[in-house]
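hey so i finally got around to running the thing on that chain from the lab meeting. sorry it took forever, my laptop kept dying and i had to restart like 3 times. anyway pasting the input first so we r on the same page abt which one it is
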Amino acid sequence: MAGRPPAEPVVARADAEAEQLFYTIMMQPVEDPYPLYHQLRDTAPALLTGDGTLVLSRHSDCNAALRNRSLGKGDEWLKLQLKDVSKDDLRGVMELMQQSMILTNPPQHTRLRRIVSSAFTGRHVEALRDGVTRRVDGLLDRLAERPGADLMTELAMPLPVSTIGDLLGIPEADRAELVPVIHELGLLMEPASGPAEINRGVAAQTHLATYLGGLIAERQQRPQDDLLSRLASTSDEALDRTETIATALLLFGAGNTPTANLIGNGLDALFRFPESRRRLTEDPGLLPSAVDEMLRFDSPSQFDVFTVLQPHSFAGTDLKPGQGVMMMLGAANHDPERFDDPDAFDVARKENGHLSFAAGIHHCLGAHLARLQAEVVFGRLLARFPKVEPAAEAVRHPGLGNRGFDSIPVNLAA
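ok and heres what got predicted. didnt touch it at all, straight out
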């Protein structure tokens, strides 16, 4: 924060106790990981694991790593995650991932991002506000008719599918059946996923890639006023077929679950902190800062993984190409060196430099769109149903790759 002295440099080191704690955090997710993050950061803020991975848990170090051009995206972690799938399935997954912004670096990443970035600028996204508001009101109408209905399946998940579906040009009639497929896709990013879950994620990716490939072929023949048609069009920067499908898959598949989890995690925080909920209900002008606090307090993305691209010294240690660097974003967002009272939920928090959308050239392309949808959801929800309350115990999704809820039953009371 402004006026706060910079964090003291740390030197990466091995620590058997901290390494065991790190693997426990990743492979045995708990309801509340934040006390464990504090313990990891206090014990070994720059941890070198036995396989050479550098694990960072301070805000300053994570922020610096995200912006460091000697580090970038690689496929080593994903290949390890997919070690139990068949060779044919592995080939199919990697072919798409390696041509996607999620695993590319400049200049390919720059070219891919430039082609789609105009659809996600703040000005373009703000123009979607009225349409998003109409969708939210319709979803709230249906929720209000069914006391005890699940906010996740009835609002948080369908909303981003419809919003991004509108941008891409996904037919309305197809969207509902794609929601559970997108949910399954997220299993690929969960460190604790076993072989059965990983294979379900692979099947989901194959299904979505086939579906999107068919739509793209249609748009090449009959273009419409949508992003899929732009991706499929010929130009000096035209994408090849694999790049086109991979980009559409990233935008539609990976762009939905984080927003749904932002909404679910945010509502859970409002339930847990009634004073913040009261302030936000009485002062809707706090919505932008409240959404950023929801992102910081319980981030939908708890970690990011980079690869060393060229020999580099970081955190007092020499890194070699191919070595992994894991940034524990959830820990960074609760770092007391960066945030006052980091475990408190404050909808009026100032200078909220959270890392939930990452940073640097890999900063989340859909950040503006996610924020807008959350602002509309909580603005309309609290304006229309200020006494909304839990109808039953929420069920949290067991994972850190996509931290959120499987269900949050609610009663909407005016």
